[in-house]
Design goal:
CATH class of the largest domain: Alpha Beta
Number of helices: 10
CATH topology of the largest domain: Rossmann fold
Radius of gyration: 19 Å
Strand content: 15-25%
Strand order of the largest sheet: 8-9-10-5-11-12
Number of strands: 12
CATH architecture of the largest domain: 3-Layer(aba) Sandwich
Distance between the termini: 11 Å
Helix content: 25-40%
CATH superfamily of the largest domain: P-loop containing nucleotide triphosphate hydrolases
Order of helices and strands: EEEEEHEEHEHHHHEHEHEEHH
Largest sheet: 6 strands, mixed
Number of domains: 2
Length: about 280
């Protein structure tokens, strides 16, 4: 398996670490003491993380640890009961899911959520709604502005699909695509919203080793080509340890460790709670 080059992680004033290349840039995400309760039960408690401007970060932990809940907090599916979320230095308190997307967070889901009966291109064009919007009247009357925006959206959708080698599938029905291609399409649609932070929820789920290796290449290429940060939830430790620069480990809604892949693999609390009971069992 290819070994991916990672930037050294260095401390910043908030006492977190970010990739060295991002140390002079405003972090894309700063979560401070984030928490949420459901009926008195703390699903996430005192979650704090900083993600550099172009960092590939990992969020790992056992099933039920609160990982997807954190994604839901970041995207305002849930409103936190405590703590703050800063996106590119801006407080997201009170924002809606739509507003958060426009501010720069896009996500994929553990269970693929495509418009299966629409074409591949139309799925991507839905993600372009922020950039190529027009009024209802313009659309109904098919005014020149409508055709101009539609042409621009078509060209951009094909450009994004070409990056992933999917341009020849543009007219296919999304639901007819193989599993791996559906995963890639969901990522393309998220990128179409022009995010500064891309959240990937178990992107390698259901993939074979060859597809996972290709996905690792894709994630790194996305970071490099678009200059954005990526936070991923994943159970495939080869993927996480292979490409993630900073890793945060959750257990029962609380952070039990943060650090580089090497530090996480050697952390006794992580070995006990998640990776295995002995260092010899730790994936690499």
């Amino acid at each position: 398996m290819r070994k991916f080059e990672k930037s050294p992680m260095v401390p910043v004033p908030s006492r977190s670490i970010v990739p060295e290349r991002d140390v002079d840039k405003l972090p894309v995400l700063e979560c401070n003491h984030l928490g949420i309760e459901f009926g008195g039960l703390k699903a996430v408690d005192d979650f704090t993380i900083t993600i550099g401007k172009t960092e590939i970060a990992g969020l790992i932990g056992p099933n039920g640890a609160g990982k997807t809940t954190i994604f839901n907090l970041l995207t305002k599916v849930y409103q936190p009961t405590s703590g703050t979320i800063l996106l590119n230095g801006i407080d997201t308190a009170g924002k809606t899911t739509v507003q958060i997307n426009k501010m720069g967070i896009a996500r994929t889901f553990q269970n693929i959520r495509l418009f299966n009966n629409l074409s591949v291109e139309d799925n991507v064009k839905i993600g372009l709604h922020n950039a190529y919007a027009y009024s209802t009247l313009t659309g109904v009357l098919r005014l020149p502005a409508y055709w101009k925006k539609e042409k621009a959206a078509h060209d951009r959708a094909l450009e994004l699909l070409e990056i992933f080698g999917m341009q020849d599938m543009a007219n296919y029905r999304a639901g007819s695509l193989p599993y791996g291609a559906q995963r890639r399409l969901e990522i393309v649609r998220a990128l179409a919203t022009d995010p500064s932070l891309l959240l990937l929820d178990e992107p390698a789920a259901g993939m074979n080793p060859a597809e996972t290796a290709e996905l690792m290449e894709t994630i790194v290429n996305i970071r490099d080509r678009f200059g954005i940060a990526i936070l991923l939830i994943e159970h495939d430790m080869k993927l996480v340890m292979g490409i993630c620069e900073g890793i945060c480990v959750l257990n029962f809604g609380q952070v039990i460790a943060k650090g580089t892949a090497e530090e996480i693999q050697a952390n006794p609390a992580v070995i006990e709670a998640y990776l295995g009971r002995s260092k010899e069992d730790t994936p690499c």
